[in-house]
C-alpha cells in the first residue's frame, strides 16, 4: 500500500479533531483511499504544552518550513487561523507543489481569489469546505452536486454563537446580555464576542459563499451588515405573536438582473425549516433553478464536525493524487453581468413606541402611504400607559423609503421612539 | 472544445428534466466540464407522441441498441424505471464501455451489488444520486463529504406521497382517505398508491442507503415495514397533544454491536427539524461519528429536482472522462461485523380504547410492569362514554414484550381495543 503524507499547520481545536478522526476511523479512511494516510508533522508554538492528546513528540515542530518544504508531504492542512501568516504559508505550500486544505474563513474570504489563482498556476488543489458551516457539506454541494444548477438564492444561519443567543432569548425569555453570558459560559461565545455578535464572522462566510455559488468577488467589508445586539426580548415576543422567529441571516440572491447580499437579523415564518434551526446549529437554505429548495443543516463548529469537513477534503484530494484529474475552477459560475446592489428590497418589521391616543395610527399610516409604503399587518400591544408599543409589518420596500417616512413621522412627534427595524423574509 | 455525448433511455418526467436543464444551463454546464455536452439520442416508445417539449425528431429512437452500442456515446442515463429491462440495458451499457447514471431506485435496490461489481469489472462509473431523495445530495454526502466518518444512524423522510398525506391530516384535520384523494388530485400520489402508502417505495430507498452508508446488503423485502394506512386523525391529534408529529421514517442504525433497520410511522418531537419537513418534501437525518448530527432537506421528486441530481452525476463523470481517476468502491464502508437484528428496541405510543371505570389504569400498568414495560406518560382523553381513549408512551422496549403484555391485557378484557401502536423516536 502506498502512503499519503500530510502536514498540519496548527494544533488547536480543528487540528486535534483531524488527529482524532484519523485515529478513530483509520481503517475506513485507508480503505477509501487505497493508501495509508499518515500525519507526518504538526506545526505548534510550544512542543511541550499539554494538549490532553497522545501525539508522539517527534511529530511536532515549531518550524513551518519543516512541513512546507518537506518533499514527502503531499497535502498541508492550514488551521492556524488569521490572515497574513496563513496566506504566506499557503502560498509557499503551493510553490512547493503541495495541495492545501484549510478551515480558515478569514484567509479565504479575504484572499480566496488570489489563492485560487495561485493553486491553478501551480497545478495543485485548494479546498476549504470547513471554512463555512463546520461539518455541513456546503461547498461540496454548491460546487459539485448542484454544478448543473444556476443558484438563485442563498439564505444561511451560519454563526452558531448568535443563533445560540437568539434561541435562548426566544425559548427562555432571556435578555440579550444574559444569553450572551450563558453562551460564554458554555463555550459558544468568545471572551470578546464582537466578531460574532456584530456579524463580522457571518460576513466572512457569506463572502466565501458568494464566490462559490455566484462566482462574484465581494470583500467581506463590502457586505452590508447588522449584528444582533439591538434585538430585544420584546422584539422576539412580538415576532412570535405575529408567527415569526428572529434569526441572523446571511443572504445572497438574484432578483431580476440585480444581485443583493447582506447580513441582518430577520423575521422568518415559524413554520419554515430555517425557523427550527436552534442553538449552536447552522443551516444553509439554497434555491437552485433546477433543484428548487434545498436545506443543509448541522453543526457549524466544533473540533470533530469541522475536522470531518477537513478530512472530506483530504480524502477527495487523496483520490486525485497521482491522477491527471483537474478540479473545475470557480470562475465558471460567474454571474458578473448582474447589478451589484447590496441591500435590495424587503418587507420590514418596525417596533415603535407611541402615545396612546386616537388618530395616531391614522397619521402614521397616511405618512407611510405618502412614501409608497403599504402595510401587511399592524399590532398594538397593551393600553393605558403613556406610551404603548405599536408594531408594523410592511410589504416589500426599499430601506431608504422607510427611513424617510420614519423621519417625517418622528419630526411630527407622532412616534416617541423607533425601538427596532428588522427585515422580514417570507421565503 | 471537445465533446461529451450522452444517450438517454426513457423520456418521462426525469428525462425531460435532464433535457430542460441542459437547455437552460448549457453555458454553465459546458464551462464546468470544459467540454461541449450533447444529448445525442433518446430512447422512446413512440417517436411521434406529443411530449410538450421541443426535441428534434432525429434525436429520438425506439431501438435501445442505437444508444447502447453507439461508440460515440460516453454516458448513458437510464430513466425507464422497472427492474429487469433496466438491469439488462445497464449491463449492456457497461459491456460497451459506457458510464451509467440512473434515477431508478428499484434496479439499484435490487441489483445494486451486481451492478457495482460489473461497473468495476468494466472500469466504468455507475452513479445513482437521483435514486433516493430526488434533488437532495444524499449519496454524494454519504460517499464523499462524510467519507472520513463512520455512520451511526440514518433517519429519513424519503417518500413525498406519504409525507404529503400525513401533513394534510396533521395541518387540516383530514382523514387518511380524503388526504390520499387530495394527494392524487395534486399529482403527489399515483392512481394505485399501494407502493407508496404501504412503505415499499421507502424500503427500496432504505436498502440503497444502507448499502451506501454501511456497506451492508439488505434486500428491500427483508426490511421490516409498515405503511401509513392505519394512522387515524385521532392518533395525529393525540400525538400532537403529547408534543409529537407522526412521520413515516426509514431508519438504519448501529446500536452497540447490532444493526437495526425498518420503515415505520413514528412519533418525532415537534421541535425536531425532521418534524418540520412538510408536504412533498423529503429529508435525511444523519449521525456520523465525526460530523455529529446533519440533516439534508429538499424536493424528493419532480422532473427538475431529480434531473438536477442526474446532471450532478453526469458532470462528475464528465470530469473523470479521459483521466485515470477511479471512484472508491462501496465495500470500504463495510460494517459486516454487526449483528443484523431488524427492528430493535424503541419507545412505543399505544392508543387503546377502555371502559371508563376505576382501576382500569392500575390493571394495565401492573400487567405492563410484569413484562418489564415502564411508562413515560399516560393520557386519558374524554370521560363518560362507555369507552374512552387511553394513550400510553412507553420507555424503550422490544416490540415482542409489548405484544405479549397487550395480549394478556386483552385476554383479561381490560382493554376493548388496541387502536394503534406506533414507534416513538426521541432523536
From TrEMBL, chains A, B:
Pfam families: ACT (PF01842), Homoserine_dh (PF00742), NAD_binding_3 (PF03447). Signal peptide: none annotated. It is an enzyme of class 1 (oxidoreductase). InterPro entries: ACT-like_dom_sf, ACT_dom, Asp/hSer_DH_NAD-bd, HDH, HDH_cat, HDH_CS, NAD(P)-bd_dom_sf. Residues 349-426 form the ACT domain. One of its GO terms (molecular function) is NADP binding. The active site is at residue 205. Its cofactor is a metal cation. L-homoserine binds at residue 190. PROSITE patterns: ACT, HOMOSER_DHGENASE. Belongs to the homoserine dehydrogenase family. This is Homoserine dehydrogenase.
